Amino acid sequence: MTEINSLVDGDQGNSEGIPGILGDPPDSTNKLSPSLAKQTLKGINWQFLATFVQISLSLVVGIVLARLLSPEDFGIIGYVLVFVGFTKTIAESGVSSALIQLSDLTDGHLGVGLLISFSIALIAIGLFWFLSPILVHGISISILRIVSLIFLINAPSIISESLLRRSLNFFPLFIVDAISYSIGYGLVSIILALSHHGVWSLVIGIMVQSVIRSSLLCFISPYRLSIKFNYTELTSMVRFGTGITLTKIGNYGANNLDYYVTGTFLDSQALGFYQRSFQLITQSLLSIAGILTSVLFPVFSKIQSDLEGSRRMYLLSVKITSLVVFPIAILVSLVSRELIIVLYGSQWIGSIKALSILSFNALLISILTLGDALARGSGLVFHQARRHFIYALMVFTFAYLGKRFYIEGIAIGVTLATFVMYLIMAKLSINIVKAKWRDFFIAQVPAGFIASVMGIITYTLGQIVNIYIKSEFMLLAIKIFLAGIVIIITLLVIPKNWLGEIPKYISQFIYDKYPKLEAVVRKIYRHNGDKEVVS
After folding, report:
1. Which of 56, 280, 300, 470 is most deeply packed, by most CB within 10 A?
2. pTM for the full model?
């Protein structure tokens, strides 16, 4: 399930891969308060902007390339990236996370990090060069050998990126990712695809993106190195990095073993169909969920000793995430046919059923991701790692059993594995914050109700509209419009206490950002003495 550009961009949907995750050590004196809630919303606001741009760029580039290249082209590169992405997880995650987390960072730590990065890069390139005929076949052998060079390209920029994330410097990372993806991958790949270079359009685009991103990061965030370091510096990095790396290996397996099963036991075209359906829904919703986890992780770290604060913040994050993700996931499932044909063309109709199924998978992943943030914030990285390895095993087993029913069977298998993991991470989270299962499910009731009402009404009216309108574009537009109207009406009629403090925090954040707006609202409501609006 790896997005092609994630090999060179920062990891999406993973809290340690977002600015501001591990920059501050836990502080037991910080408790959940209105100011902390406002700070959280401020972080979400910036991350939302960056993620919106990233998703928009990825969607536009993906649409253009999907109409220029075949599903088989995407399947070939997708299968190669399963192996490269796994090695990248080992090569980069531990070093980056350790550099961000260490409270007393020295030049010696930077030297150790760079040494580890280059060492793993050289080993990875050597292994892929000799093992590629065993791992893949045909043209994929050359592709795997060439793409493996990104380890060497990325090695020096790992330190630069980690320092930016450590200092909470969001803006340069946002600019670097936008430029490297739009120019390096998007523009280059599209030009080559127009010139009929097939799968090599994607390969060269990935390499150019990697070069641009690494060069910009090293230029923006230079660093000093010390060739002298002691054993303590080495062990402190390895100890923390190991826990994070193990977690990410398990998570990577869970997110990519379905790709491996599809590419190994079916064919490249099937993998292309499956990858497209997964990326359209799950990667997009994971990016949205990643906004919350990236901001909530440091909050969980700061208030972990405040049990009541941790419980309230976790349940609030579950409620917010479900309110955003559930309706989107259900809507995508309903309009999967129109969405695929309008965006990618009729050559991708093989992705329709898998997209409809994987929409429910994305819904579950968005909630269990919050449990990941809570576990990391509480320092339980090895507990988390163990559960992700179980998740990876379930994904492989269920996907393998489902392959006899083509990619739809694999999608069902993956969704079942995710449902079990959803319950496992919920149990861990409930234990951490001392909540009850009832609290966990009640937090999702508003989103479930809104999504259900929207789904039933949109499906019913959509069946009627299908009789009179045959244009896929018009059908898509009408169904989205109907869904939006139903959601708005449902939000207005549900009991106010269902949303809890969410409207209050959002309005206060808006008023802090736009003071004049608060003054206008006060004037409007002054005549009836309504203070709740601006409280």
Report:
1. 280
2. 0.76
Cα distances from 215 to residues 8, 155, 357, in angstroms, run 12, 11, 40
What is the rounded end-to-end Cα distance, in angstroms, of the chain? 43
CA–CA separation, 74 and 405 (whole Å): 21
Instruction: Fill in the amino acid letter for 476.
Output: L
With tokens 């990126």, the residue in question is: 161
Query: Which CA distances in Å does 453 have to 475, 486, 492?
Result: 19, 8, 13
Distance CA 312, CA 383 (A): 22
**CB neighbours of residue 148 within 10 Å:** 22
Contact 296, 370 (CB under 8 A): yes
- The two tokens of residue 376 are 């990391």
The pLDDT tens digits of the residues spanning 256-298 come to 889 999 998 998 999 999 988 888 877 677 766 666 555 554 4
Rounded to an integer, what distance in angstroms lies between the CA atom of residue 278 and that of residue 90? 23
Which of 11, 10, 100, 25 is closest to 379 using CA atoms? 25
Tokens of 337: 């046919």
Give every CB contact of residue 113 below 8 A, 6+ residues apart in sequence.
95, 98, 99, 158, 159, 162, 237
| 462 vs 475: CA distance, rounded Å | 8
Amino acid letter, residue 464: I
